[in-house]
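Kindly review this record before class:
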Amino acid sequence: MHDLKNELRNLCVNYVQNRIDTAVWAIKAAQQAANDETKSSAGDKYETGRAMMQQETARNQAQLNEANKLMVALNHITSNTSSKTVLPGSLVITNNGKFYIAISAGALIFNGETFLAVSPGSPIGLKLNGQKIGDEFNLNGKFYRIENIL
């Protein structure tokens, strides 16, 4: 099962790396557009275009910062430990889905199975935290029973 958790962690790392790459590319594209605007424009049109490029760069920089925080969170998760209670890095099998407690990366598909990567601070992550096999809870009108913790 450690291999499965390693694969899920790797899928999360790929998810975050794609976000980082996209943000870096968008920042470079906005900066290049601002540089091109500087060469070809004058007056109010130049100032408006430059301000828009600065806003776009700031927005993408915020996305890059958020992605970097996710990568730091992933680096603190070890997938080779097992516990009788749910904690970050756990793979939790419930009657209502399989949850990998790491970061909010959504559905991860591995070997034809779907696992939901959720943050420990998300509503489902908070409900699962500290739970044991056999524990039950309700969230948003759904009943969950923990069948296994890997």
